[in-house]
Amino acid sequence: MDIQIAKTTQSLTTAAEMRETTKMLMKPSANWEDYLTPAPLSIAIMGELVFISHCDDFSINKNPPEGGFKFIKYPESFRACLMQVCNSGWHAFNEAHKNMDQIRIHTSTVPDYMKAAVNILFNGTDKVIENLLPNQLDNIRTIADECVTLADSVEKRYADVINLIQELLEACINAEHFYGEELEKVKMKLEENKLREQSARQLNDRSKKAMEDMSKQVEEAQNTYKKAMDSLPSGWEMIGMDFVDGLLSLPTTIINGVISIAASPFKLVSDAVTSQKNKSENAGEKLDEFTQMKAYSKSGEILMLAASLKQHVSGSKIDWEKLYDQKNNKMKTAWTEAQFKRISEELQKMPNDNMCKRALSFCERGITICEELATYTPDQTWDEKKTKNLIKDIQELNDDSLAFDTKSKAASHTPALTPKPPMMTKADNSSGGKSAGQRASQNARFRIEQSQAQLSQVRQSYEKSVENMEKNQKELTDILVEMQNCQLKEVDFKTKIKMLVKGLDAMGRVKEQWEKMVRFFQMVSNIIKTSLNKTLHNFVKTSDDTKKLSYNEKLFVKDLLYKQAFEASNVASLVHMISETYTEVSNKYLMDRVSSLGKLMAMDKERPEFLQERLNLQESCEEAQRGILQLVLENKKEFERKTDARMKKIEGELKAILPAAPPEETERIKEIVHASFSKEEEENFI
């Protein structure tokens, strides 16, 4: 039965399946279409700025900043400044289209390099791996570095437009051209934009630090493996393999967690803006989401250790015979206790936030249970009440560990069903898959329930995302319609400022998406550098001296290499999906409008054709907005179809082969999983 479960799970977690699953789980966060909707609005606003630049001119150089303007070239002419904004925007959209197409081409080659890397890991000798694998991984790293440069240059272009608009608004304030309530609104908007910039910088720094920490944790994982396997009690081979699985999940949780945070900068930005406006005394106590990811990365190991205790409980009895080591006259759970203590020490080195405290509490409870079990001796009769309480503690620790692992999957957007790396799969097959059938069935039921709840949560999040996008789209369109209805003589200074502020908003949203792209590629590059610098170096120096399992230290390092290359490939696949979407949208709905903007800027504003070109640009931008919205709705239907298909496939292939479970057991797993996912969702929207 357990062999059949393993084979079915493997068929559900192929590299292609996992790439699609990652895209699904990241869809609400990395939803490129959502951020593309302001693009036609940005172009339309620039067209209106060209139009209103024909109005009366004036100087904004009456009270210039010390050292002069950094971005404004023509402070003596407000009209010239408006044209400078339009020209910068035109260049930004042109470069975005060209660079994104190059990124699309680059990322399309990553799967081929990944296939070559896996083939070398599977079939190559140690010498072949040492000589050839670095080339394949270095190819992926080179692509990532090149894409960082491409994305970074576009992000800087958009930053130039935003900085120019900000400086122009500040110059208007200093020139004292407007007062009262409108002035306060502009000041608040400028302050909010500065907070956004600050938040983006902090996000970038923390993302970089998180990846550096992952490098250290990957190195520690190998040391942990060696020490743990050397001390593994005889007869616990199955627990040893589960332990390895938990260790290997560490890079996946951290990488997916960093991706999900980097893909959703708006939450961090809104938190920064809200805390600034409210001036909350507790603003500094806000939880660091990257620190939470480190705590969540321990969920796999904690769950494995809790499950290893529970498997020796049957009904109201404990299997003392299997737990007691007759040869050494001590409990085998001394190994489990040592692992809980090690994880506890690692958690104590992290910042003491709520998630760390929660993970620490599991370790403390596990240590207490192991200490209680260690008092057993074969010549004594255990008190029934004491046994009952101990079983209750073990069951509660296991249930809470299941809930914590579910929260980890929800927060990091890590798939519930994950593939076993190639060397572990080989070891399992060669040993005949000697894991406990009951345990395999229980774990499969839990993962099925997790997958269904996770996909259901992602669908709800995506629906909310689309609803918010439609609402924001309507608000922005209403403002633009109001501005476009202005006649030339009616365009006063207040209207111009309102347009600039809206232009700042729209360009800011597009720029934030490019910042996300930069972080994605930096992440791919960092993952590969970790593989090349640390893991591959460890592979070269390892020896095959761990003989507890058919799976030794060198195979473990191979799997670490595979995991890191696999996650880098997953991120690249996600970016390829985004770049394809952008290129499609840009070709259909943006570039013609950008060209029309360039034509409008070059035209003589006295000619009657100018007004006709302005009208054409307005209509085409409205058409583009409708087109992008239609694309979003089509993608939403496709997303729903894919999530339905994934749930049916898991239900049909994996659940169908499992033996019937007691209804109360099924209900208990459902309650644990759904309570954890719903709580996570609730926290996301508070």
Notes on the protein architecture:
The protein has a two-stranded antiparallel sheet with strand order 1-2. The protein has 686 residues and is mostly helical. It has one domain (2-278, 287-685). The protein has helices at 2-12, 15-26, 32-36, 38-52, 78-107, 110-123, 126-174, 180-230, 237-262, 265-278, 289-296, 299-310, 320-323, 333-348, 354-373, 384-412, 422-430, 437-484, 493-541, 553-602, 608-653, 663-685, and strands at 313-314, 317-318, 324-325, 330-331. Helix 7 packs antiparallel against helix 8, helix 9 runs parallel beside helix 16 and helix 19 runs antiparallel to helix 20 (553-602). The longest helix is centred in the first third of the chain and has 51 residues, at 180-230. Keywords: Coiled coil. Residues 427-443 have a biased composition (Polar residues). Residues 200-231, 448-479 form a coiled coil.
| Strand segment count | 4
Q: Reading side by side through the largest sheet, how are the strands ordered?
A: 1-2
Task: Report mean pLDDT, rounded to a whole number.
Answer: 76
Elements, N to C (H/E): HHHHHHHHHHHHEEHEEHHHHHHHHH
Task: Tell the overall outline.
Answer: elongated
Main sheet properties: 2 strands, antiparallel
Helix content: over 70%
Beta fraction: under 5%
Instruction: Return Rg in Å.
Output: 29 Å
* Domain module count: 1
Between the first and last Cα atoms, what is the distance in angstroms?
A: 44 Å
Helical run tally = 22
Helix and strand content put the structural class at mainly alpha
Low-confidence stretches: 266-287, 432-436, 679-686
